[in-house]
Design brief:
The complex is a heterodimer of chains A (129) and B (150).
Chain A (H helix, E strand, L loop, with lengths): L1 E5 L3 H13 L6 E5 L2 H10 L7 E6 L8 H10 L8 E5 L4 H9 L4 E4 L4 H14 L1
Parallel strand pairs in A: 1-2, 1-3, 3-4, 4-5
Helix pairs in contact in A: 1-5, 2-3
Chain B lengths: L2 H22 L4 E3 L10 E9 L3 E7 L1 H12 L8 H20 L8 E3 L3 E3 L13 E8 L2 E8 L1
Antiparallel strand pairs in B: 1-6, 2-3, 2-4, 2-5, 3-7, 6-7
Helix pairs in contact in B: 1-3, 2-3
The chains are: A alpha/beta (129), B alpha+beta (150).
């Protein structure tokens, strides 16, 4: 299974990857991007990859391009359609949650989080995909 | 202590405790009284804009920052590891976000910046906001401080 983690903190990208592995996901490759623009570039380059992405996890507050702009551009460019997206962010404000859902996010996890919370939010999305 | 300040302190204590218990699996408690923070040169800053204008600063020594990075990552940190500054920035981010999320609406309708981390300490720091307080915390004997100004 291939996953993309988008967060400006390298520490947080590692913490999220560890939580995914603790949730039992058998990750064969984890792509990492430090902002939305980098993530879009990875999606464009992986558009015709033989092993498609199974999951995208993204922060909201990031320099260069934030997570909401990333979602909106991804949708406009029809990149990684059908791949579940879960936002992992300190922005628990309802306005941000609604904007993220409107832009195509299927899940929302607030920092700080436990590995169990990641498991509960992510696994049902993978089963449904 | 005024009600506004008292509420802000309680929210901060709660946010710090939640972050440590959830992400680092450690308890972290406020320290009362004077604490020597001369060695606390690593400073992370998050700014609030919108319904609340202000900032949250977290300052720690190299030793405390290294222990924090190790606790977050579950692996030892190397000398001069950039992950150490990153960990302090992310810690400040989660504490500031937690503090903000505990505000009642409409004050919670504010944005928070990405963290900026420096190694200049807090010498000469002056808050530009009306209410300011600092609070020291300890986890397993490692001390760090938080300044909130709004």
């Amino acid at each position: 299974m291939r996953a993309l983690i988008v967060d400006d903190s390298a520490v947080m990208r590692k913490v999220i990857e560890r939580a995914l592995r603790q949730a039992g996901l058998e990750l064969t490759e984890v792509l990492q991007a430090s902002n939305g623009e980098e993530a879009l570039q990875m999606l464009r380059e992986n558009h015709n990859a033989s092993a498609p992405l199974a999951l995208i996890l993204s922060d909201i507050n990031m320099p260069v391009m934030d997570g909401l702009q990333f979602l909106e551009t991804r949708r406009a460019e029809k990149l990684a359609q059908g791949v579940p997206v879960v936002m992992i962010t300190t922005e628990g404000n309802e306005t941000f949650v609604l904007r993220a859902i409107a832009a195509g996010a299927q899940g929302y996890i607030c920092k700080p989080f436990t590995a169990e919370q990641v498991k509960v939010r992510v696994l049902p999305l993978l089963r449904a995909a | 202590m005024s009600d506004v300040r008292n509420d802000a302190v309680n929210r901060l204590d709660s946010a710090v405790s939640e972050v440590f218990e959830t992400m680092l699996e450690r308890s972290c408690d406020p320290l009362e009284g004077e604490v020597d923070t001369v060695e606390s040169k690593i400073v992370a800053r998050i700014q609030f804009t919108g319904a609340v204008d202000g900032e949250c600063l977290l300052y720690a020594s190299q030793a405390t920052a290294s222990v924090t990075a190790e606790a977050l990552l579950g692996t030892p940190s190397e000398p001069h590891d950039p992950m150490v500054d990153d960990a302090i920035g992310e810690l400040c981010n989660m504490i500031a976000g937690g503090w903000k999320s505990k505000l009642a609406s409409p004050d919670s309708n504010c944005s928070i910046s990405t963290p900026a981390v420096t190694r200049d300490g807090l010498e000469g720091y002056q808050a530009k906001f009306g209410t300011k307080f600092s609070r020291n915390y300890s986890f397993q004997g490692n001390v760090f401080g938080v300044v909130l100004a709004f």
